[in-house]
User: Fold these one by one.
Assistant:
Number 1:
Amino acid sequence: MIEASALTKRYGRFTAVNAVTFEVRVGQVLGFLGPNGAGKSTTMKMIAGFLSPTAGRAKVCGFDVETHPIEAKKALGYLPEGAPSYGEMTVRSFLEFIAGIRGLTAESKRRRLDDVIGRLRLEGVLEQTIDTLSKGFKRRVGLAQAILHDPPVLILDEPTDGLDPNQKHEVRRLINDMAENKVIVISTHILEEVHAVCNRVVVIAGGTLLADATPGELEARSRYHMAVSLTTDETAKARETLTAIPEVETVEIDPQNQRITAFPRKGQQILMAVGDALRAQGIAVRELQLETGRLDEVFRNITQSHLREAHA
Amino acid sequence: MKPILTLFQRELRSYFATPVAYVFIVIFLLLSGAFTFYLGRFYERGQADLEPFFQFHPWLYLFLVPAVAMRLWADERKSGTIELLLTLPVTMGQAVLAKFLAAWSFVALALALTFPIWITVNYLGDPDNGVIVTGYLGSLLMAGAYLAIGACLSAATRSQVVAFILSVVVCFLFLLAGFPLVLDLFRAIAPQSLVDAIAGLSFLSHFNGISRGVIDLRDLIYFLLTIGFWLYANAVVIDLKKAD
Ligand SMILES: Nc1ncnc2c1ncn2[C@@H]1O[C@H](COP(=O)(O)OP(=O)(O)OP(=O)(O)O)[C@@H](O)[C@H]1O
Ligand SMILES: [Mg+2]
């Protein structure tokens, strides 16, 4: 379990993280979202015990990171931003070094090494020095290092950055596999990832926590939530028909692909009405979809309105 | 204790992962040989001891030891591995000590490889081997003090070059402090007690005694305290500077 209470980090007069408070429990995979420079990495560094907070505190598995650093660090697997590792070492010797520092016994060391090497597909590069690895492999070595001692708490700063689509998929599956009995915090700029692995999202911008919700709740804040989108050859006629439906607030057409989206009035269900109206007019629809909401739009709204407030 | 050993091993191995270590050892051996035989007039003196050998060590170390120490922390900060290292379950003290001990062992190895000169002097004459052992001990302690300074200053910057230059300057000051020329200068403007204090801080005054075979407990304590002080400073500097 991770508890961050009023975590604050100042650099001189600049506040990188401002009184951020949250708690993550076993079984939760928390996605940390925010624009560049929001303070995600800084928050993670404080929880991992690398930076001392200017104010507030962080606990990992009940251990205060400042007063019981060793216990907290033992319970933690941490992938720092950019996945730094000792470039002159081979992958194998690096992982063995980590196993040694983590105090794994010979038996569990062998088992854990086999496990993470298999999961992250590192078999082919074990004897290669880390300096000569491609970016994606370096990241995988960083991940392997973080999960090697099978820690109850994982903090991963942009774990899928630089991975190819297959590996992204693999790493997400890895996180999902581990999710059940661990506490996991990941930061990411890839919003699909939130759907794929997170069951909770925290949005921060300018060092301030702006939202703490499930991905579903965030999507529900989207303008697109419960909207209906469709494509048809008779765009103009369809637009007229949809505009005439009383529950529909507005109709928009994507200029790029002529996709029509009908937005409901607040709290209204329009899927049935749209279907009925189109059928009544005899409009042939190529595809039709009920939107759940768009995270990128919600993300923009949350973070930009914060910026506007900050400027005002 | 275990984490120190693991860190120590990793660190020491990393020296030999690149050719730098071998280059260093070769340069060290060449220079110490050159100093001893040409500047120290080892043969011409006609005495069976290693004084000409040890006498140049303070100068040899002035450039070579900062070269070993410069990468200790600057490199970790540059590559970001310091974040990895300090989020592993090791204390700052363990990390500082392990790195220092690894660097010290490396210098000790280089020093040990000068053994042919010991054999030579035993072959040519009948030296007091006790004095020679003491000389090696003193030299090693002095190298440790240089290293501790270098390690601390290497934590203050990301740039190895800056770390190197800073360490050479600071080490040079510690050397100079014992030079008659400098002491005379101070004697002219400062009270004797201050002059003594400055002389007391110098590597040179403490090393000269040991290298002549005189083991004075105060000299040993001086070097150990110097090492301790700079390693403590090292930990403080890391704490202050790790964020940027
Ligand atoms: N040592 C430092 N001194 C001054 N400012 C710093 C320092 N380290 C970080 N910052 C600032 O703190 C802010 C937060 O940085 P942080 O790395 O946490 O952002 P982030 O959310 O991880 O961004 P990204 O998505 O780009 O990784 C940034 O504005 C950054 O410039
Ligand atoms: Mg970041």
Number 2:
Amino acid sequence: MSVAVKLTNVVKRFGELEVLKGVSFEINSGEVVALIGQSGSGKSTALRCINQLETIQGGSIEVCGHRVEDPKLDVRALRRDIGMVFQSYNLFPHMTVAQNIMLALRRVKGMRKDEAYEVAKPVLAKVGLSEKIDSYPEQLSGGQQQRVAIARSLAMQPKVMLFDEVTSALDPKLTGEVLRVMEDLARGGMTMIVVTHEMGFAKRAANRVIYMHTGKVWETGGADILSNPQTPELKEFMAEEL
Amino acid sequence: MFGAFSTNHLIYLLDGLLWTVILSALAFLLGGIAGFFVMLARISRFRWLRRVALVYIQIVQGTPLLIQMFILYFGLGVFGISVPPLAAAGLGMMVYTSSYLGEIWRGAVGSIAKTQFEAAECLGLTRWQALQDVILPQALKIATPPTVGFLVQLVKNTSLASVVGFLELTRAAQVINNSLFQPFLVFGVAAFFYFCVCYPLSAWSRSLERKLNVGRR
Amino acid sequence: MHYQFDFGALLPYWQSFLSGALTTIEITVFSVIIGLGIGIACAIARRSQVAVLRAVVGVYIEAVRNTPFIVQIFFIFFGLSSVGIRMPIIAASVFAMVINVGAYTAEIVRAGMDSIHPSQIEAAQALGLSKFQIYRDIIMLPAIERVYPSLSSQFILMMLATSICSQISAEELTGVANNIQSNTFRSLETYFVVALLYIAITYLMRAAFFGLGLIAFPRRRRLGLGV
Ligand SMILES: Nc1ncnc2c1ncn2[C@@H]1O[C@H](COP(=O)(O)OP(=O)(O)OP(=O)(O)O)[C@@H](O)[C@H]1O
Ligand SMILES: [Mg+2]
């Protein structure tokens, strides 16, 4: 099994504030990892460091052969291998669903319009939104927008997908439809790092759980640590989540 | 002693109005292009470039256009560069326009959420592609009403080109008034002409603004 | 061709520069204070029940905002003298400026007043405030506080516009510069110095508005709540 993502003693500071205090973990290809922890524990920051939306102050990150902290890193090549989905969808409001998906295919992969369209169609079908191809984001529900955002990332055929609390803005019914898409992806063998508060999803879909606390990896293991936590902090966290 | 205001005078003023419009259009075009680069510099990744742009804006917006016109006029003269009045006036107006439009547009670009930039970067787009395909089309909508509003200031301020001898509407009115000495009439007519150009622009800017606000809910 | 800058030639004129700058500040201060009063009155009139009043004020505001200041000042100064009214130049300058400041201020203040939510007024009515109190404390002061940044940048623009008064021979900064450069033939140097002085005045005004804002608004907010 090859290692897809590897963090070694990663330190991230915002000015005085040290947010990641030596974070290390490894994720193998095809693995689905749930990243959990209290608000402010540094989960989003860790994800953002992985695709270099933030630069790190110490340690090293390796993603699919890219050394992220290397000043000579080809950032665009790194980002071609990583897909990221945000809590707030971040679809481009002035573009239709098709245009949202086709933009990077055309601009980054240099496809022609019709080629890009042929790629967009099946990806959209995969998230169950074929009939919305010509809609604008504001015409869609939150859950549908989030599924389009997933499709937009998938279309680029990334090797790793990062999800940052992608269902937090959704009500339970819409949460379900997004989680189902993600579980499909997981079964299809996608390497995924999922920051989530959905413990049900973590139990069903994750091969492994990483619990972060105060900027450190506090506890890690299979999904069973959720029902059988080893540290008092995770125990307390699980109690709060229920 | 006073001659009568005749059709010839009216034609002379209309001719001046034409030059006012030409100068405005020229200033908008050149100033718009320069202003676009000012905006780019203001959002640049390089701190020094942002600083330079900021200093440029503070100098231009901290001095009267009249003084800028004089500096340009005498400056070009001092270095022995002789340019036609239209070019001198156009250059002065361009500097002025670029700083204000640059700032208006930077505000519009800045009002697009940072997350839109991030989403584009995560998809592998370059900064320039993200700006072109994601940020600018959205900023354009927001920037249009204040840009049209600025056009009103621009048209009015071309009147200051008269002080360096450019024969536009205000200068034409001065010339006529010097011979007729009927300032209420002559400057009244000139003011009316300016109003006819500026008022529709003001109204347009306001209606664009309203539509934008309704669109945003 | 190489030009030798000679700022030394301007040294004997430093008092003139200074007095020009002071005149610029004086014209600005007077016209801003009076213009602000007129602007507020016009903003209130724009929202009045009386249609004629609304229309008259509307015409005033649009006429001023859609014509150049230089044409306005020629109209006023040369116009009045053509019918035998000889105004001192500074008075004519302040007069033209006041008319301008009033119109621009009116639009800004009105926007601020429009942004006060009707529920604020209802709440004040429910508390039993008088009409005048509501106008002053619930509508006007918060409105001005909200548009304070736009107002101060508008006033700085108006200060820069006073340079146009030089065209009717007012001895403010630009007028003084015009005289000095024709005496010394050091035009470029003169206008550079004057440009710097304008920038200095701009910063001075920014600092003054900042300080004024700090003093004025927290106190008045408390006053408004205390009524
Ligand atoms: N750009 C930034 N500048 C300064 N501080 C930041 C920045 N981004 C995050 N932080 C701080 O870093 C800490 C960790 O933030 P992060 O967003 O990674 O937490 P999180 O675990 O994702 O929390 P949540 O569950 O609320 O999303 C917080 O204290 C936050 O205030
Ligand atoms: Mg987070």
Number 3:
Amino acid sequence: MIKIWSMKKDENAAARKKPKTSAAQIRVQKDLTELDLPSTMKTHFADPADLLNFTLTITPDEGMYKGGTFKFSFAINTNYPHEPPKVKCTQKIYHPNVDLEGNVCLNILREDWKPVLNLNSVMVGLQYLFLEPNADDPLNKDAAQEMSKNRDQFLSNVKISMRGGRVASNVYDNVLAS
Amino acid sequence: MATLVNGSATADWPGRYFHIDQILDKPGPRTDPGFAAGAEAPFLRDQAKILVIGAGGLGCEILANLALTGFKHIHVIDMDTIDISNLNRQFLFRSKDVGKSKAIVAADFIMQRVPGVEVTPYFGKIQDKGDDYYMQFNLVICGLDSVEARRWINATLVNLVDPENPESLKPLIDGGTEGFKGQARVILPTITSCYECSLDMLNKQTAFPICTIANTPRLPEHCIEWASVLEWPRVHGDKKMDTDDPEHISWLYKTAASRAKEFNIEGVTWSLTQGVVKNIIPAIASTNAIIAAACCNEAFKIATSSAAYLNNYFMLIGTDGIYSYTFEHEKRADCPVCGGESLDFPISMEVTVEELIDMLIEKQDIQIKKPSLSTPTRQIYLQAPPQLEQATRPNLEKKVSELVPGGGEVTVTASTLPFSLSLNIIYN
Ligand SMILES: [Zn+2]
């Protein structure tokens, strides 16, 4: 058997056993403690000991969604950062890029995710959706169509939906409360 | 072939290892300086204990190769049972074995076929086993199709390395195939680049934009993803999808097929559905055979010092003709498993968490600003976000010795560190 031990370099000889903390756990700790969020975004941990599941609240201070409070759940699995976090909107909202089940169309949450991205990039990306909704990548087709065809009607629908009103056949959640 | 009753034919017959002994009985130009002519064969046959992880496409080949090159103490782990679709390439299994444990059937088959070889199966997960189990082996070979399992065994073997104990360093030989492509590599935990160091080389699994899936499906895969990503949670709520459950696959298949019909898309089948949701890339028997052979060749060379072993990454590309490339993959300083720094940190039992943080900030040689600290089981102090800072703030006044046992590890992250620093807390 090859004597592998003799190949350990001196500096390595001092190396200790690494902690059993998983790579995902360390990376999430790093991401969260280095978050650089504007005052319009806040994280909330239902269990502060569990860093892998939390809520993000976005309160846009400009744009057509100004005044609303939008909530997203984040669920991170042990393959993070090789898999993106799973993010869902926990409210029923009227938005071209969010469907009625809370699925979000944001490229870095799926096809364009890379391990060099982090939680900060995802959060900034989500906030951007409220400033610049994108009618070209629709998840709520009706909202997207309205947005590109009749912008005034769309803006009015946004206002109605945010109050918890009805747009077409759907009643949306009131996001002005809280 | 003569029928041998299991267990009765442990004696070797003359000339059994004639060809292999040509290599082991005398040194050659490529033998390692530590090569001991005549002593390597007994080590290989009597002492060397090797663990094979995975008894699937690669595992079957690996087990056969090891047994035939003279390894006699082989252990094999696999959590899967035999599926009828395995039979075309996983040649240790027969129709009568469908539904049985891959590890157990493979072990029995090898013991029947190659006299004197002892194969010990374990039908279960690698995660069921602890450090004591992995310590007993000289070498570990992986033939897995799961990134997660590979990362786990890689991290476990890196963590197993104890600076006081040379026996704790277990070479890991990792084989992997994807269609006509494959790789074999030798990982010497803490010495060479590890599996985690190279994770960014993985082919990313294709993901389609969610809005394409939702609105403009063009491919059968789009319909299947629609069923699994959007319809499953909508219809089943929090019930988790189990890609190993045929009923779940059937539901996805039916849902995807009706959507495909609606959009005039052809090609949604049961097996494509299973392939897409499990991210299956067709396995090719010949690729498995080549990669398994490369892995077993490395195991043999390392176990016998008979030739220079692979340094450290062999890549096979069989998609257009045959191309192979060998290179040294470099260790990453910021690898979360084998990289990062580790420091012995002697402190008194009286030091508080706040004082420990000040000591870290003042340490000239590590340049840390705003460190966040945790142990494998709890957070000690996190600088942000505000809620977590508040929740962990009471710990600042506590003594480190109340939170971390002697010899315990503290993981430190900070924006100024490439990844993390681990402190080995020693009380004086
Ligand atoms: Zn590494």
Number 4:
Amino acid sequence: MLHLFCPYCQELREEDEFHYRGQAHIVRPKDPESLSDKEWGDYLFFRHNPKGIHHEMWYHVSGCRRFFNVTRNTVTYDIYETYKIGETPAVTAKEETE
Amino acid sequence: MSRYSVFSLFKHALSHHENWQKVWRNPTPKDVYDVVIIGGGGHGLATAYYLAKEHGITNVAVVEKGYLGGGNTARNTTILRSNYLWDEAAHLFEHSMKLWEGLSQDLNYNVMYSPRGVLNLGHNLQDMRDIERRVNANRLNGIDGEVLNAKQVKDICPLLDCSDRARYPVLGASWQARGGVARHDAVAWGFARAADSLGVDLLQQTEVIGIRRHEGAVCGVETNRGFIAAKKVACVTAGSSSLLAKMVGMELPIESHPLQACVSEPIKPILDTVVMSNAVHGYMSQSDKGDLVIGAGIDSYTGYGQRGSFPVIEHTLAAICEMFPDVRRVRMNRAWGGIVDTTPDASPIISKTHIPGLYFNCGWGTGGFKATPGSGNVFAHTIAKDEPHPLAKPFSIDRFHSGHLIDEHGAAGVAH
Ligand SMILES: [Zn+2]
């Protein structure tokens, strides 16, 4: 059972109050009509699937009903930080900063 | 390889079963292979077997970082069926089902294929409409299937609460009589033994740490036991597929999640069929040892930890207790998780890649065991001919850019 700290409620709550919403920081295409099939496919279906540090979006469905981001380790399930939409994570994987 | 038969059993009984031949060799890696298969689970071993048997390619190695059949092959709930909705998936899984029917004879190894029938329950009107649609589609594809009403379901499975006061009322079910179960370990061992006897090298405790390329094409794998050269490299590593793809700078449309299952203490026979319910997320069968084998769901979030979240298993067991009130006080013996590779359309990827000589067979998600022989069979063809098998063609990775998805979320069994 994960414990997530909702940055809006400012409270540590149990996993089943939340819904997982997938990889964080995916930018919606600015000019959708000019996208190639390749770019559409990548945008819709291809997600990072790292073994280690992962930035992901969660939804506090049984609480404030707001979205926020989490930096989590996908092997140990340690949660390094939670942060509001629009903020940048403090913890990143080595290869992301390269 | 000495063949198993009632006579060999007799003969070895005379020497107290102490002189049985080792089931497979434990060879040292050769310098170069025609094909290296990464992943020694059911699908990888089946691929090796069909490469050798049907395509005459015997200079093959299966490299496995742990032991044979120790991943999801050992962790699944052993259910076999082919009642998928869309033509592409139905043909692929039915191809597999036909191979199951003769597999023990083909491998000379008892995989304990038991066609005890599979019920997929409907709990509301929409479930029943979906079931009718799926069964009709199955029959048009030549796959056996029937729509049953509640009374017929009760006749097949008296253990199930089909009464009016059930928490999850049973309105009916789809029934595939040829579906059933097989012994998961025996499947890996049978394919391993048969492949080994045709000359395939099974290299255990051999972990791939890199995939080497020469002028763009694959030329071998770096392992913890040194470099192994190969003309073709085929990746069959389920939940770890993204990690292998990353070694060559590829991304796959795959997310890895833990999927859980559990078994009870062994009890007397009470359930002689397989019961599945997508709506409430519980499915159960009984093994020959007497354990109730129960499949739970996947964690919603991605993860490589081979354990699942407790609320997931709690949710499934709550449903099982409502569906089968008689088993409420049965204790669970073990629960575990395996890392499954889910795709956006809940269909697998059996594909060539943009890198010459590199092939992927992955994305089986929560339902790969039933496909083991068929998957290996069409993947072996794809590798041998460097051309997709007709049944594998729709499952190319290209579909995520062309848009030809094969949406099997309805028939996949475990929601994701
Ligand atoms: Zn909140």
